[in-house]
Amino acid sequence: MVDLRRTDLAIESRELYKSDSGREVPGVEVDQEKLENITITRVNIFDPQGSMTMGKPMGNYITLEIPDMRMGTPEFNHYVSRILSIELNRLMRRFPIHNVLVVGLGNWNVTPDALGPKVVSRVVVTRHVFEFAPEEVKPGMLSVSAIAPGVLGITGIETADIIKGVVDRIKPDLIVAIDALASRSTARVASTIQISDTGVSPGAGIGNRRTALDYSTLGIPVIALGIPTVVDAATMANDTIDLLIDSLIKATPQNSQFYQLLKDLNRDEKYSLIKEVISPYDNLMVTPKEIDEMIDDMAGIVAEGINIALHSNMYQ
C-alpha cells in the first residue's frame, strides 16, 4: 500500500482505498455535485473506523476540483471565489460567529509554501474598526483579524504556540487556517481547493508534521482551507511506473512469461525501492516552474472567497 501520508487530500485517501478494495470506505459518506467547470466532492468521515482507514480526523472535507483554475480569467477566478465562499459558509454557519481569526500558515520565503501568508495580506481585517470606530461598522461585517505566524525555522517558536497566545488574547469564535498542501497527483496541483472543519496539521503532507491546530489544542473550531502546491517525487514516480506496468499487462499475451513476471511484481517493494533511490534528498517534492504566478492567482481567489464569506454585504 502506498504511503497515505504523502497526500493532504481526503478525496485522494478515499480514491486509494476504493481502487484497492473496490468498495467505499466504511464509516464514510460521499456526495458529489457538478457545476460548470467545477466538481465538488463532500466527504464526511463519521465514525472512528473511517477515520483510521482514511488516516484523517472525523469530520467534513469539501473538495473543489477546478481544472481551469491554472489559467482562469479574472471573471472565472471571481466565479470560483463565489463558489468557495458558499462552501466555506456551509461549515461556518454551524457555529455562532462574531469574531474570526484568519491564520496564514507557511513560509513566505519559500514560494510553494507561501500561500497562507499571501492570502492573509489580502484578507479584509476589521477588528480594529469594531474596537476603535464602531460607527463605521456596516451590516454583514464580522470582526476579522489575521496573522501569518511564520514557521519554526524562522521564529524558533512552534506555530501552534504563537496562535494559542493570540487566541488567548483576542478570544476569537473561529479560526480559518490557510495552508499549502501536498497531493498525490500533478493534475490536482494548483487546481484543487480543500476545506475541512477538522483543523490542520502543518507540514503533514511533506512528512514534517507539527502540532495540530484544532479544537483540542486551541479550544475553538478550526476550519482549514488549502490548495496543493507540491507532489511527492517518490509517489509521482511510483504512479508513473504503475501506469506503465498496467499498460504492458494489457498489451501482453496472458500465456507469456513476461505477462506472469509483470503480474508478480510486488508494488509495495517497488515503492520502497524508489524511496531508497531518492532518500539522499529526504522528502523530495516537485512543484510547477510557474508556481510564483500560480501562488499569486490562488491567493487572490482564496482571499476573495474568504472576504465574501466573512463580509457578505460588502460584496453584494
TrEMBL record:
E.C. number: 3.4.24.78
A GO MF label: metalloendopeptidase activity
Modification after translation (UniProt): Autoproteolytically processed. The inactive tetrameric zymogen termed p46 autoprocesses to a smaller form termed p41, which is active only during spore germination.
InterPro entries: Pept_HybD-like_dom_sf, Peptidase_A25
UniProt entry tagged with the keyword Hydrolase: yes
Enzyme class: hydrolase
GO biological process, one term: proteolysis
Catalyzed reaction equations: Endopeptidase action with P4 Glu or Asp, P1 preferably Glu > Asp, P1' hydrophobic and P2' Ala
Keyword Hydrolase set for record: yes
Superkingdom per UniProt: Bacteria
Keywords carried by this UniProt record: Hydrolase, Protease, Zymogen
Propeptide: 1-8
Biological function: Initiates the rapid degradation of small, acid-soluble proteins during spore germination.
Subunit-structure text: Homotetramer.
Annotated family: Belongs to the peptidase A25 family.
Stored NCBIfam families: GPR
Protein name: Germination protease
